[in-house]
Amino acid sequence: MMNPNALDPNQRYLFLDTDAERAQLIASITQARDAVRDLAAGVPEAEWYAPRYHGWSLAAMLAHLNISDNVAMLLHRLALLGLHPQISRGSVNRANAGAARLFQHRLVSSSLRSMGRNQARIIAFITILPMDKLSRTVHHPIAGPLTLERSLQEFFVYHWEEHLATMRMVEGIGQGRADQA
After folding, report:
1. Among positive and negative, which fits the CA dihedral 16, 161, 42, 108?
2. Nearest to 146 by CA among 18, 7, 24
3. pLDDT at 12
4. What is the architecture, at CATH level 2, of domain 19-180?
5. If DSSP codes are grouped into helix, strand and coil, which group holds residue 140?
6. Whether the Cβ atoms of residue 138 and residue 76 lie closer than 8 Å to each other
7. Long-range pairs for 129-137 at CB < 8 Å and ≥24 separation?
């Protein structure tokens, strides 16, 4: 029986042992964020703060993605120090519910700027990450412990692609992952 809390068991992960593989991960991260930016640019400004995506406004969704990046970066940096804080799925759900309300009216332009800064920090982290640290453990709220190598992909690509698919469906822009943009 499949664990209902597990992530997609068919998810393909890159190994990040070479510069080419890291470049492929960076390209996927960039592609997902570019697709979110493009989608956001197509939403009329008058609709930025209205509930659209399972009750989340565009402003709240962009803020959520940025906050998730910040939390994930912290988790990855702590993993390098040998620390593995566990954030439960319930805690994530409660935080997300609060964030949806709190950030419903966050300036979209601020979130878009934050996306760029976060993207640069993530890329720099991946670029300098020592290969002997890739097997360190990061606790994922849904899947549980993942190697840092897989966790980077879950948090910084697949999480974004999941929300992008929801946003595309609502906006009537075909369905699928960022690589189908």
Report:
1. negative
2. 7
3. 84
4. Up-down Bundle (1.20)
5. strand
6. yes
7. 129/16, 131/16, 131/17, 133/79, 133/80, 134/16, 134/17, 136/79, 136/80, 136/82, 137/79, 137/84
CA proximity to 31, closest of 137, 164, 148, 133 = 164
Contacts of 38 (CB under 8 A, 6+ apart): 181
Residue carrying the six token digits 């878009």: 112
The model's pTM: 0.88
Query: Could you give the CA distance from residue 61 to residue 53 in angstroms, rounded to a whole number?
Result: 8
User: For 145, phi and psi rounded to 5 degrees?
Assistant: -70, 130
**Residue pointed to by tokens 């595309």:** 168
Side-chain-side CA neighbours of residue 48 (13 Å): 19
Distances in Å between the Cα of 49 and the Cα atoms of 19, 60, 75, 134 are 40, 8, 30, 39
- Residue 144 makes CB contacts below 8 A (sequence gap 6+) with 5
Q: Tens of pLDDT along the chain (181 residues)? A: 233 334 665 678 999 999 999 999 999 999 999 999 999 999 999 999 999 999 999 999 999 999 999 999 999 999 999 999 999 999 999 999 998 899 999 999 999 999 999 999 999 999 999 999 999 999 999 989 999 999 999 999 999 999 999 999 999 987 444 444 4
What's the one-letter identity of residue 33? R
